[in-house]
Design a protein that fits this description.
This protein is 32% helix and 28% strand. It has 354 residues and is α+β, with helices and mostly antiparallel strands. Strands 1, 5, 6, 7, 8, 9, 10, 13, 14, 15, 16 and 17 form a twelve-stranded mixed beta sheet that branches. Strands 2-3-4 form a three-stranded antiparallel beta sheet, with no helix packed on it. It is globular and about 60 Å long. The chain starts with a strand and ends in a 19-residue tail after the last helix.
């Protein structure tokens, strides 16, 4: 199994703006703080106001009505958001507010003991955990220090393509890697799969009270046969069980109308199920109300039919595979003597292996 899940995170800066990681790059966006909560604005022609780091906070928003009033009257740095959106935190699943609402799909394990989770897993998943152990993989929690940053960098640089997409963390400096992974370290565990002295995969688990969320899960394609991803999830569940965690989340289960992907299948085989929780959308402007009526706030994955999304994902994966193959062949040809070039073939491009 070759996996990478990296969900955008942010870092606190003064109220004139907050830097957030968008597609691997840190970008400053407008922000406003009221009490202990900060709202940021993202988007171009539809400007969405959302709670800063909402997916990783220990508590949910306390007074949405205050935010609705503030955003309508004040805006953010001269910017008038069109829609204010926020969600409820598990385990609460019944809507608490009367604002317009949609159900958001979360991949979660309702943890009621390690043994119960383990026994419900497919036989192949349990075999993969045992294969990992038999092939020499040792899983442990490591401190977030310079040594771990170096290991994370090596894992990220294993392949320029992941899951049919460009690897956004490929080729970054150690300083950039440290910044990308330094959020919430005071309430996180870095679980590492090691083969000897080499880290071949890691999982970052963020604790949020009675909920723990997987922020990153990345493994090396070159060691996919060792099944490090299965071993990492097994260790994460064991840690959460020991800490009395009620739910473990792993991003979304369905992303809009996108219903199939290797990552989704991995989540299912790892015991994650779909849990629906309320996500509220409050129009703040006339344009925001129009966009909501037209469902434009859902984005392309929430508008396009599943078949169109599947074709688009397949086409994108082929483009990256072709590009990777061409670059690998060119690099190989340059490094070989002239007499060997006509016999050269590039290695198969890296990709998801479910």
């Amino acid at each position: 199994m070759f996996l990478s899940l990296s969900i955008p995170v942010t870092q606190n800066v003064p109220d004139e703006g907050i830097e957030i990681n968008v597609k691997g790059k840190w970008t400053k966006v407008p922000a406003l703080t009221v009490g202990q909560e900060t709202v940021v604005v993202r988007g171009g022609w539809i400007k969405l106001a959302m709670i800063h780091d909402e997916e990783w906070l220990e508590e949910e928003i306390k007074d949405p009505a205050l935010w609705v009033k503030t955003l309508k009257q004040r805006g953010l740095q001269g910017i008038r958001p069109d829609i204010f959106t926020f969600t409820q935190k598990l385990p609460a699943s019944e809507p608490k507010y009367g604002y317009p609402m949609e159900w958001t799909s979360i991949a979660a394990i309702h943890l009621q003991g390690f043994k119960g989770w383990w026994e419900k897993l497919p036989q192949e998943t349990r075999k993969n955990v045992r294969r990992s152990q038999k092939r020499g993989v040792v899983v442990s929690v490591k401190a977030f220090d310079q040594e771990l940053v170096t290991h994370i960098s090596r894992v990220n640089n294993d392949s320029p393509v992941r899951q049919g997409m460009r690897n956004l963390h490929y080729g970054k400096s150690l300083d950039q890697v440290r910044r990308d992974y330094s959020a919430f370290v005071d309430r996180s565990d870095f679980i590492c799969a090691c083969l000897g002295d080499e880290v071949i995969g890691f999982l970052k688990l963020v604790y949020r009270g009675e909920v723990a969320s997987i922020l990153n899960l990345t493994t090396m394609h070159s060691h996919a046969d060792k099944r490090p991803a299965n071993a990492l999830v097994e260790k994460a569940v064991a840690l959460c069980d020991a800490k009395g965690i009620s739910h473990i989340t792993f991003g979304q289960f369905n992303y809009g109308n996108k219903r199939e992907s290797p990552l989704r299948e991995f989540k299912i085989r790892s015991g994650f199920e779909e849990i629906l929780k309320p996500k509220f959308y409050v129009p703040l402007t006339a344009w925001g109300a129009i966009c909501m009526k037209a469902n434009l706030h859902r984005g392309l994955l929430g508008i396009l039919p599943h078949r169109a999304i599947t074709l688009g994902v397949a086409a994108r994966a082929k483009c990256y595979d072709l590009k990777d193959a061409v670059m690998s062949r060119c690099s190989s040809m340059l490094e070989r003597p002239n007499s060997d070039r006509q016999m050269g073939r590039s290695n198969p491009p890296a990709g998801s292996n479910s």
